[in-house]
Structure formats: structure tokens, C-alpha cells
Write a structure and sequence with these properties.
The complex is a heterodimer of chains A (about 290) and B (about 220).
Chain A lengths: L2 H5 L8 H39 L1 E6 L6 H13 L4 E6 L2 H12 L12 E7 L6 H11 L3 E4 L2 H43 L1 H9 L4 H33 L26 H21 L4
Antiparallel strand pairs in A: 1-3, 1-4, 2-3
Chain B lengths: L1 E9 L4 E10 L4 E5 L6 H8 L7 E6 L2 E2 L5 H8 L2 E4 L11 H10 L7 H10 L15 H13 L5 E5 L7 H16 L3 E5 L3 H8 L5 E6 L2 E4 L5
Parallel strand pairs in B: 3-8, 3-9, 6-7, 7-8
Antiparallel strand pairs in B: 1-2, 1-4, 4-5, 9-10
Helix pairs in contact in B: 3-5, 5-6
Classes of the chains: A alpha+beta (about 290), B alpha/beta (about 220).
């Protein structure tokens, strides 16, 4: 039997510390998957909102009913002759009703409300000269107000970016707590296996051999626990309502496409973390054993 | 191989023994005797570096114990086989794995036939796959002896190796130790069993040391 093979056997595979390591790794991996999902989702939201809102704008026209059509035609003329605007179209009443339904509820008699007319613009990648466009609209159709959505976009993107930062900080904290728990568990494992260490030292084993025997055992437990925690968390994410469902706040939380591969890195990273945390602990504890 | 020069050891309540100077040379056979609590086990622990002397100098395999690094101490222990009274096995490993441990845990090559031959030599050929808790007292002592000598040590230390054995088994174990000594291994046995010492002295030229009155003395001819 080789040194490596016996190294895998000298540490008993039972005991409270073994379960503590497995359970800690599983719980932390579970939380890490959610933090990672939050990070990925918020990054995606920030990018989507930034991209979607940055290339669209709205002209709101609040004119008296008898002037509404003529003002609309004037605004469309201005927009069609403005460089940087790819398309301009008047939103139909049904579209306006759909936008308001989320706030005012269904079956609202919109005809009874003095609603402004909305003209949706799609901008080219260069975009228009916004200040120039505002001045032209003020001159040609004073009742028209150009809204490039920046007052919506900026806080949304800021919120998403901050959410992503929180998620990343959470991941770092989870990693730090995992390392601390595994170091404690490693210390407990070494203490409860004093007899194993004494016998190994007695027969001439070096600290490196003894430390690696424990580190291998602890890392293997951490890998098993983290794999289980990751698998459960990924299944839980799959069970969440998807985008377009009736729960818009939670919709879309999770991974899409290739990002599903990201949580698969958590078990090996946990094992690596367990390896370094337990190795340092093992050498520290062994120094106290002759 | 093992040299003590004016060695004293103190656990904190006064010296257990002091002014101990002795040499254990290659191929020598020594007994260490004395009443319980006189310091026999402490003396053995100094011989393999589990304890450091309170004063004086211990030299193991030409290296001063006090200045050894942990790796040097481990390397020295490869050349010193130890049989404890309580044997100290890893109870979750088989007898075969325990016996092979001094080689596998130090990266030295181990052939299954070596372990098998050794277990047969100590009369445990059929117990290779047994777990230590299932062994009898005599079997445990013999397995501990096999583990102590599998690495072909220069010195064998045994602490009350026959403490739990009947007379017949004690004689068998002693014959194994004598045979080992005849192959060149220095042997030091701590025991309070004078009959065992007399039995051994009839077979081999052995020196008897006695810890008494906090001093190490050579025992007289009454042994």
C-alpha cells in the first residue's frame, strides 16, 4: 500500500467534525449559489435596462383635443428630420392602456381621462442631439415634451449595480465564513484524533504527511458537502418563477445560458478553500505535538 | 546510538531522576527496572524524543535531541522502534496496515510479503486482516513488536511489553526480542518483572539498569 493510499486511510471517516465540515460546506455552497445568482441577475438587469432604455425615448404631447392631431403631425415631422432617430411612432390607445394597467388596474375607462399622446422613438446607436431636439420641439410644438428616460435609467442602473456589489460582497463573506468554519472544524478534527497523530509521529511520520492526511479528508468532505449544497440550490433556482410570470419582482432571478456553468465552480472552490484553511490549521496544531 | 550525559528530568514537582549518564550501543541488550513511578517510561520517552530533558544532553543517532528540527526527530524515529505497554494502534486500520505504517507513513517502500513474513514470524500470520480491538493481549503485543521492527530499526525500545501477558506468552515475546538482538538491533526493555530478566539473561548477555533514589544504577549480580 502506497504512502498516498495509507494517507487516505489513517484519518477515521467518522466523528462530529466530519459532519460539521460536510454540513457547513453544504449550507455555505447553497448560500453562495444564491448570492452568485443575485450577482449575475443584477448584472444582467443593469445591462438590459441600460441598453433598452438608452436607445429609446418618448415624446409626450399634452395638447387640447382639437389640436392634438395637428401637433402630432408636427412632432412626427420634426422627429423624422432629426438625425440620430431611427423610428418614431404614435402609441395606440391599447398600448397606453396596457402601460397604465399595472398602476391603475384593468377595466379603467381611459376615454374619460385626459391622457397625453405618447410618441415612442427608437434612436440609432449615435443618438440625436438631445438639447437641439428639445429646442426644435419647443419651437414647433410647444406642448411636446421630450423624455430620454435618463431620470428613470440612472437610478435603475445604479440600483442594479449596487445590488451586484452587495451580492459580490456576500460571496466574499460566505467564503470567509466558510474558511473560518472549516478551520475550526479542522482544529476539532485534529484535537479529537490526538491518538492518530501521536501514533503517526511515533512511527516517524513527518508533519507534512500527517497534515496532508487530515487536509485530504477535510477537503473531500467539503467537496461532497458543497456539491450537495450547490445541487440543491440550483434545483431551487430552477423552481423559481421565470421571467414573464405573474411574479415580476422575483422573475428572472437565476442563471441563463452559459451562466448556469458558474455555480459548478463553487464545489471545487470550496474544496480549495478547505484545503488551504485546514492545511494552515493542521501545521499550527501539529507544532504542539511531539 | 543513544547517549545520555548528566540527564535530569523534572515534571515540575522536583526531579524524577538526575545525573543519568548512559550509552546504548549497537547490538547491546539492556533492561531498565525500578519501582512504579521511578521514571522508567520517562526514560524511554527521552530515548525517542517524546520528552526533552530538563537538563543534561541526550544524543540520538549522533544528533543532539534538543537541537533537532521536527523533521529530523521524525527521521530519527524511523531508526527507533517502540513497543508501548498499551500498543497504541490505529483501531480503524487492520493489523497488516498498522504493522506497515512505519514504512507507508514515511514514504519507504513496503512489500506485502514483508508484512506477511513478519506477521508469520510473530505468530500472527492468520490475523493480518483483523482489527486491533479484536486481538488478545498477547496478539496486540506481538503486533506492536512487528510494527516496531518492520522498518529495521537500529534500536528497539519496549515499555513493559509483557505487562498483560501470561508467563508462556511473555517467554515467547522475549525470545523474539532476543532473536532480534542477535540480528544486531540494540534492545532496551523497561520492566519490573525480575523473572523475565532472569529468563533473558540466561539466553543473552544483558545489562540491567535500575532507577532508584532518583539515580540510574547498574543492578547487582543478584539479577
Amino acid at each position: 500500500m502506497s504512502a498516498r493510499a495509507i494517507s487516505g486511510l489513517v484519518v477515521p471517516g467518522r466523528g462530529q467534525s466530519v459532519w460539521l465540515i460536510t454540513l457547513s460546506a453544504a449550507a455555505m455552497a447553497f448560500l453562495a449559489v444564491f448570492a452568485l445568482a443575485l450577482s449575475v441577475t443584477s448584472a444582467r438587469l443593469a445591462a438590459n435596462w441600460s441598453e433598452a432604455l438608452s436607445q429609446t425615448a418618448t415624446v409626450r404631447l399634452s395638447a387640447p383635443p382639437e389640436e392634438m392631431d395637428s401637433q402630432t403631425a408636427l412632432v412626427l415631422d420634426v422627429l423624422r428630420t432629426t438625425p440620430g432617430i431611427a423610428e418614431a411612432r404614435v402609441m395606440v390607445p391599447e398600448e397606453q392602456a396596457a402601460l397604465l394597467e399595472a398602476w391603475l388596474g384593468p377595466d379603467l375607462p381611459l376615454d374619460a381621462l385626459p391622457l397625453p399622446r405618447l410618441i415612442e422613438l427608437t434612436e440609432t446607436s449615435e443618438g440625436p442631439d438631445r438639447q437641439g431636439l428639445r429646442l426644435r420641439l419647443a419651437a414647433e410644438a410647444p406642448a411636446a415634451v421630450y423624455d430620454d428616460h435618463s431620470r428613470w435609467r440612472r437610478p435603475l442602473v445604479q440600483a442594479a449595480t449596487r445590488l451586484q456589489s452587495f451580492a459580490l460582497v456576500s460571496l466574499v463573506l460566505i467564503g470567509a465564513v466558510t474558511a473560518a468554519m472549516i478551520a475550526l472544524a479542522a482544529s476539532a478534527a485534529l484535537s479529537s484524533n490526538g491518538q492518530v497523530i501521536r501514533v503517526l509521529r511515533l512511527v516517524g511520520a513527518r508533519d507534512r504527511f500527517i497534515a496532508l492526511a487530515f487536509v485530504r479528508s477535510i477537503s473531500r468532505r467539503a467537496l461532497i458537502g458543497a456539491s450537495a449544497g450547490t445541487a440543491v440550490a440550483m434545483l431551487a433556482l430552477l423552481a423559481l418563477p421565470q421571467a414573464g410570470s405573474a411574479v415580476p419582482v422575483l422573475a428572472g432571478l437565476g442563471f441563463q445560458g452559459w451562466t448556469w456553468a458558474l455555480p459548478l465552480a463553487i464545489p471545487p472552490l470550496t474544496a480549495l478553500l478547505a484545503w488551504s484553511a485546514s492545511l494552515a490549521t493542521a501545521f499550527r496544531v501539529l507544532k504542539g505535538v511531539t | 546510538m543513544i547517549v545520555f550525559e548528566d540527564v535530569a528530568h523534572d515534571y515540575g514537582g522536583g526531579p524524577l531522576f538526575r545525573d543519568v549518564s548512559v550509552r546504548l550501543d549497537k547490538g547491546s541488550f539492556h533492561f531498565l527496572t525500578g519501582p512504579s513511578g521511578a521514571g522508567k517510561s520517562t526514560f524511554l520517552k527521552l530515548c525517542y524524543g517524546e520528552l526533552l530533558p530538563s537538563s543534561g544532553k541526550v544524543t540520538l543517532m549522533n544528533r543532539a535531541l534538543q537541537s533537532m528540527t521536527r523533521d529530523q526527530l521524525a527521521e530519527t524515529r524511523e531508526r527507533i522502534g517502540v513497543v508501548h505497554q498499551d500498543c497504541q494502534f490505529l483501531d480503524h486500520l487492520t493489523v497488516e496496515q498498522n504493522v506497515g505504517l512505519p514504512l507507508t507513513a514515511t514514504g519507504r517502500p513496503l512489500r506485502a510479503s514483508d508484512v506477511s513474513d513478519l506477521l508469520t514470524w510473530v505468530g500472527l500470520g492468520t490475523r493480518a486482516e483483523a482489527l486491533p480491538p479484536t486481538l488478545s493481549g498477547g496478539e496486540r503485543q506481538r503486533a506492536a513488536l512487528a510494527r516496531a521492527i518492520i522498518g529495521a530499526p537500529n534500536v528497539l525500545l519496549a515499555d513493559e511489553p509483557t505487562g498483560n501477558l501470561d508467563w508462556e506468552m511473555s517467554q515467547r515475546l522475549m525470545m523474539l526480542l532476543i532473536e532480534l538482538n542477535r540480528m544486531g538491533t540494540a534492545v532496551l526493555i523497561a520492566t519490573h518483572d525480575l523473572n523475565l530478566i532472569r529468563f533473558a539473561k540466561a539466553q543473552v548477555q544483558a545489562r540491567v539498569m535500575r532507577i532508584s533514589g532518583r539515580r540510574l544504577q547498574l543492578a547487582g549480580s543478584e539479577l
